Amino acid sequence: MNRPKIIELPIELSNMIAAGEVVERPSSVVKELVENSIDAKATFIKIDLMNAGIDKITVIDDGIGLSSEDIAMAVKPHATSKIKSASDLFAIETLGFRGEAIPSICAISKMTITSSLNGYEASFKKYEGLKLIDEGKTSFTQGTKIEVSDLFFNTPARYKHLSSEQVELSHIVQLVNKISLAYPEIAFVLTNNAKVLFSTDGNSNYEAIIAEIFGTDVAKQMVTFNAKSSLYEIKGYTSSNSIFRSNKNGIIIMINQRIIKNANLVYAILDAYKTYLPVGRYPVTIVEIKANPTYVDVNVHPTKQEVRFTDEKELRYLITNTILDALKKVELVYEVKPDELKNIVVKEAKTVKEKDFESDVKSFKWDDFPKGSLENNTSDAFNESSLPKKSDTTVSEEQAFYYDTSYQDAESTTNNKKQQLSFNFRDDHNFFQSLSYLGQFNLTYLLFEKDDNLYLIDQHAAMERIMYEKIKEELQKPCESFYDLLIPLEITLPDFELNLLDDKKAFLTHIGITYDIGENHIVKIKTIPTWINQNFASESLDAILSDVINDLPVSKDAFYDEFAKTMSCKKSIKANMHILTEEVSCLLQDLDNCSNPFTCPHGRPTIIHFTKYEIEKLFKRVN
Predict the structure, then answer these.
(1) Nearest to 607 by CA among 424, 374, 404, 279
(2) In 245-292, at which residue ranges do the beta strands (DSSP E only) sit?
(3) Which of 47, 439, 497, 610 lies at a CB distance of 3.0 to 4.6 Å from 493, suitable for a disulfide?
(4) Most confident of 252-261, 325-334, 556-565
């Protein structure tokens, strides 16, 4: 039997293996080179691509530059100027620090590095798979130029698995977009085959960069936010309920100007939108986090995009509540435009044959956004509240839905502060009561007018929002923390889950769930918290135990939220029901008292509006 021997791998092979973690595709090369330029104090960075970077990537900057000796050291593994000792790992203030990027890229490509320290004399070195094949002196401006060509030329399996040029280009465009948001003070230019795809001027104008990336309509409807806690400070922009995407790619998170990936922080953002957007729709959100570097561990993965935080729970709470407070301060009335109606009609009118022949070429641009814009009429936007106009329509008491007026004492929970952009701010909470009632359409939608605008309120969605907030308020009132069950509930679990459950016994006791383990894998629940309704205790406990066993968060607030959504739907006026004029008045008053009257608990709009101008466009009265 031939016993295999342990050997030390050649440095070339080691670097090729390391490159597998650092360099996944052309965008990985762009990321590492641009981050090096940023660390070099560049104020201008240009990225030139040939065929989406598959054939060639050139990154030019005006940073501090490299000497000939620096260039030679840069291609050696774990050579870096950014850390000196182990203690530096615990307070990293640069984007790069591992000394892996340049040698990893060089190992699987043909690379030329040209750099000047003084702005006229420069050194260059040319490599092919880490082998130096040429070097010398040349003239070059202050800074560095790194050219990477024939990526994966010596690893054909990696090259074979590259996607199309359009897909690879989309990854690079998205990356440069994000980096430009993290460093608005740096001017970026991105070209592909000599065509400029993206550029910024380095004037620290966030709104201009957002407009360049997402479009002007989106930029106008972003809400600003900022807050701080004992450990973290956050600021950023987030979209209204009129702007959303079908994926999470519009969520950008930075920590100390480093673009990161963190699923928990993404969920913290989405928690703020729970009742503002429909299921499967996601906001455009840019969050910039500032913290002492010692609170952040970026030495988790070679790509340096995964990080760990000190007290991440505090950060998640800060993000969710800050964004939620920002959303509560503005009127989020969804405006319908003729273009949207046209798109809907066109989509419905397409035949199967037309769909089959539609182009399937993917664009490198960001997703299309709904082009709705929020009401921007600041003149006389908040007059004294006027009661709805009396309707000529008379409805019998048997036909009418009687609105419960016993809830008229609800208080608003928002503290308003004017911010910016194209929103009206909820300063006096009488927006809904200032609408003039016109009548009911299709026994489902309530029609109003105000300031040359036509408003439609979905009576079920509006009532559902009101009942949702009132039920949540009732649920959160103080009560006994748990109660004993006269007859224990029995839940059967397999052996391995019983062991995991026992490990969580202290936590379960803390939230009011106590149990004994009997024979045949049976868990006998003795006490449960009062926030679990006895009518569906078995199903609730089964779900809670599953979450606890799988280390998922168990939240009383989340439980209340889902329960309130279910109950609000059952207790609200439905479509195809008459509503009296007096009941409309009560409905509007309660909407003004809601913390978020603009969407139902499931994220659908409660109110939409058409401007006079948009209506006249539909009737071809204006161009």
Answers:
(1) 374
(2) 251-255, 258-260, 285-291
(3) 497
(4) 252-261
Domains detected in the chain: 11-199 (3.30.565.10), 206-328 (3.30.230.10), 336-474+572-618 (3.30.1540.20), 482-569 (3.30.1370.100)
Q: Residue 380: is its pLDDT beyond 70? A: no
Distances (CA, A) of 36 to 18, 40, 92, 254: 18, 6, 14, 17
185: tokens are 């003070």
d(CA 450, CA 218): 25
- Full-model pTM: 0.67
**CB half-sphere exposure, 90, CA atoms < 13 A:** 4
CB 256 within 8 A of CB 93: yes
Average pLDDT over residues 445-471: 90
**What's 380's DSSP letter?**
T
Structure tokens at 1: 């039997």
Residue 269: half-sphere exposure toward Cβ, Cα within 13 Å: 26
H helical segments located in 357-447: none
Strand-pair category, 285-291 with 251-255: parallel
151 near 159, Cβ under 8 Å?
A: yes
3-class secondary structure per residue, 66-95: CCHHHHHHHCCCCCCCCCCCHHHHHCCCCC
Phi, psi of 39 (to 5 degrees): -60, -25
The torsion angles phi and psi of 334, rounded to 5 degrees, stand at: -80, 125
Give which of 236, 113, 246, 131 is closest to 178, Cα–Cα. Answer: 236
Tokens of 255: 């920590």
Backbone angles phi, psi at 63, to 5 degrees: -75, -165
Instruction: Report the alpha-carbon distance of residue 188 to residue 202 in Å, rounded.
Output: 7
- Phi, psi at residue 258, to the nearest 5°? -105, 125
Per-residue burial over 413-423, b if 16 or more Cβ lie within 10 Å, else e, is ebeeeeeebbb
Q: For residue 264, what are the CA distances in angstroms to 281, 319, 322, 523, 548?
A: 18, 11, 16, 31, 17
User: Which alpha helices (DSSP H) does 221-336 contain, by range?
Assistant: 263-272, 312-328
DSSP letter at 425 equals B
- CA gap 273, 604 in Å, rounded: 11
Tokens representing 560?
């209340």
CA distance 26 to 491: 52
Residue among 245, 263, 256 at smallest CA distance from 182: 256
CA distance 504 to 521: 17
Rounded distance between C-alpha atoms, residue 462 and residue 468, angstroms = 10
Tell me the helix, strand and coil percentages in the chain, rounded to 5. Answer: 35, 25, 40
- Decide: 125 and 68 in contact? Cβ < 8 Å: yes
Burial 48-75 (b: 16+ CB within 10 A, else e): bbeebbbebbbbbbbbebbebebbbebb
Residue 418 has pLDDT above 70, yes or no: no
